[in-house]
Amino acid sequence: MPTATALPSVLQYTQKISSAPSAHATKSLISHYSTSAAEHSPTNDGANHGSTYATLTTPPAIVATHFDLSKIPTAEHAQITRDFIIVPNYLSPQEHDMMVEAATKKLKRALGKQVRYEDGHFDGVITRYRECSASDWGGAPPAPASVQGAEQKERQTPGEVLQAIKSHYFPQDWKWVAPHILELEAGKGGIKPHVDHLEASGQVVAGLCLGSTAVMELIHDKEPSKSFRVLLPKGCFYFQRDSVRYQYKHGIPIEPEDHQFKGTVYPKEKRISVMLRNALEPAHHNGH
Ligand SMILES: O=C(O)CCC(=O)C(=O)O
């Protein structure tokens, strides 16, 4: 891409395994992150041709800087970093600003001119926020063949960004629910720990982080002593899936002093996330 920030290749996130197992089978195979030459073969253009999704995992260097797993048994680290993927700097600065502008416009159009922060979700999960759906961002046509898989291409519209995410990280035949824009107010905007509605979407909850750095806390639903935190810098893309999506509650601390990662408090500035969820299909519902 034409900026100094190189977009991360999906291949960095791929583990070398001999075949494409099901998501269930993959759990036992996750043992290392490989940077073998085969994965970087020039014939491999970085697009997700079907088998990549199952083998994605967060590379160790990014785990070291973006995960605090100190309250998770070591034996479970590989599973968590397979089921919570972070791609820092997914967006270039230009793409980030384009997304912020488009999301802000959409919120304004949906909610009127006035900036309005609702005090609490009907179920009390989110505080000081505003949100809307962005159904027309879902259907951007695929990029022309000459640039398909070329993660170097600057994306010009939200639809192109979301389409690139879907085609680079996920199986091509998945269906998606309409993207959702969520803005948290500076200061007291936050999200209480929750598991996303099981019947409303499938095994992936993905987000693009805009505006400011957020700290996400994930707490095991049945064993609350097991929790971990992830640092979500602005411009990152992340997703949770499978064991993390179903077994851990996720949230963003509401109290500014609790918005910390490894001892550093991150100021709670205005933050926007663009959330993507795959549609619930019986074949994808892995129970929990
Ligand atoms: O804003 C985020 O990154 C997470 C939002 C969230 O918790 C959700 O949509 O379930």
Automatic annotation (TrEMBL):
Residues 85-277 form the Alpha-ketoglutarate-dependent dioxygenase AlkB-like domain. PANTHER family: ALPHA-KETOGLUTARATE-DEPENDENT DIOXYGENASE ALKB HOMOLOG 7, MITOCHONDRIAL (PTHR21052:SF0), SPERMATOGENESIS ASSOCIATED 11-RELATED (PTHR21052). It comes from Podila minutissima. Pfam families: 2OG-FeII_Oxy_2 (PF13532). Residues 34-53 are annotated as: Disordered. The keyword Plastid does not apply. Keywords: Dioxygenase, Oxidoreductase. One of its GO terms (cellular component) is mitochondrial matrix. This is Alpha-ketoglutarate-dependent dioxygenase alkB 7, mitochondrial. GO terms for molecular function: dioxygenase activity. GO terms for biological process: DNA damage response; fatty acid metabolic process.
